[in-house]
Design brief:
single chain; about 180 residues; alpha/beta; 4-stranded parallel β-sheet; 3-stranded antiparallel β-sheet; globular
Length: about 180
């Protein structure tokens, strides 16, 4: 059985990005989005205005937390050969409800890809209505239906009028971004 990583969150997390289950490269590196062709760090970095891709892994996580962004996966354990979500079998879900109860400042839950969205929304049930929900295209290199530019256009939804990813815990706001209209 493959297992996901522990959540990367802080009590003041405002945005939680949920993936499905780490792929082979990520599991080998013991890092979220460890495959060098996965666009996650570039996409989120563009939204934040920080070159996350160029940072070492601990600094990436610290930067996310400073911007009040958390990471986790919707799947706790599963069987899978390779890294494709379509090959996930016999999965068990992470306890999203318990995590959300520990995040009083949470406003936005973003799902990285269709599998994460499907499983995550099912796990959230009616509680999903309490949050701004974003279904984002997968950052995986296996998802080639959209170009990087098209993916980035969707991922820019992470920035929201209340500050979202553009505001750090120091209170400094990155005003270089023009956030899109928020959707609930």
């Amino acid at each position: 059985m493959l297992a996901s990583f522990p959540p990367v969150v802080a009590r003041d997390t405002r945005t939680l990005i949920l993936g499905s289950l780490p792929g082979v490269a990520s599991l080998q590196m013991r890092q979220y989005y460890g495959h060098p062709r996965n666009a996650f760090w570039k996409l989120v970095g563009e939204v934040l205005g920080a070159d996350l891709y160029a940072m070492d892994y601990p600094t990436r996580l610290q930067t996310l937390l400073a911007h009040r962004v958390g990471l986790w996966d919707v799947i706790a354990q599963a069987r899978r050969i390779g890294s494709l979500d379509s090959d996930i079998r016999d999965h068990s879900q992470n306890d999203l409800q318990t995590l959300l109860a520990q995040l009083p400042s949470l406003e936005t839950i973003a799902f990285n890809g269709g599998t994460a969205g499907k499983i995550g929304l099912q796990a959230l049930g009616e509680q999903a209505g309490r949050y701004r929900i974003l279904l984002l295209p997968s950052s995986s290199p296996a998802y080639a239906a959209l170009s990087y530019a098209q993916k980035l256009a969707s991922w820019r939804q992470l920035a929201d009028p209340a500050g979202g990813l553009c505001e750090t815990t120091s209170g400094k706001t990155d005003n270089r971004r023009t956030p899109p209209t928020s959707r609930r």
